[in-house]
Design a protein that fits this description.
Blueprint: E1 5-10, H1 16-23, E2 26-33, H2 36-47, E3 58-60, E4 76-79, H3 102-112, E5 116-122, H4 131-142, H5 154-167, E6 175-183, E7 194-202
Parallel strand pairs: 1-2, 1-4, 2-3, 4-5
Antiparallel strand pairs: 5-7, 6-7
Helix pairs in contact: 4-5
């Protein structure tokens, strides 16, 4: 398969989402995952000749140690930040959990300035408990250059982001962001698994995108402007 687009794949685990992105016509210039066993799974698949992962540049390490400036202009940043902080199981620590990597996802978008991004997480993130933090994530992805100040708590940063949004100021790096909870079984996947997705397109591209209609066998929504048409992850 000839790759038409470039991508950065973060928090890849054993590579499920990243493989879907690859099937959609993207080739990763960075594949990052901290878990040794997950990285070993990808490497063993490479050794066994699995074509879709053959040339993946896998980096095992902490995403907080990576710089994304060198990838500026990449077509897509995608990944599934760790879900444990927001899962129904566990301690429900959310933003107080050291495993919350959404700040790093936002940083990757800010530094790489991709044409688009896709991030997914557990449905638990949409619970009332995390309602404000969910909005905080969304607004950070929409305005990634409005960063948190030294000593500023996240609710204060959220207030600044909301003020900026309401001002109508769209200068600087800005994304059109849409979010939705999707059920895998609604799209031909033989598994009942709900995930919340954050999808954004850089505002200067003028892309008008929407999530697909829930019907078995349907694919991802299509942009209404030619030139950037991600196909369905398989």
């Amino acid at each position: 398969m000839t790759a038409d687009f470039s991508s950065i794949e973060l928090f890849v685990g054993a590579g499920g989402l990243a493989q879907g992105i690859a099937h959609a016509g993207f080739h990763p210039c960075l594949v990052a995952e901290w878990n040794r066993d997950a990285c070993q799974t990808i490497r063993e698949n490479q050794e066994r000749g699995l074509a879709i992962v053959r040339d993946w540049p896998v980096i095992q390490g902490d995403v907080r140690d990576l710089s994304f400036d060198r990838y500026e202009g990449v077509d897509l940043v995608s990944g599934g930040p760790p879900c444990q902080p927001f899962s129904v199981g566990g301690k429900h620590a959310g933003y107080n959990d050291t495993r919350d990597m959404f700040p790093q996802a936002v940083r990757a978008v800010r530094e790489a300035r991709p044409r688009a991004f896709i991030f997914e997480n557990v449905k638990g993130l949409t619970r009332q408990t995390f309602r404000n933090y969910f909005e905080y994530i969304r607004l950070q992805l929409q305005y990634p250059e409005i960063t948190r100040r030294n000593g500023e708590e996240w609710p204060e940063h959220l207030a600044r982001l909301e003020q900026h949004h309401l001002s109508g100021n769209r200068d600087g790096l800005t994304y059109r962001v849409v979010t939705e909870v999707l059920q895998a079984a609604d799209f031909g996947v033989p598994q009942k698994r709900e995930r919340v997705f954050f999808v954004g397109f850089r505002r200067d591209l003028g892309v008008d995108w929407h999530f697909p209609t829930r019907s078995r066998g349907s694919g991802w929504g299509r942009t209404r402007r030619s030139g950037f048409r991600p196909a369905a992850p398989h």
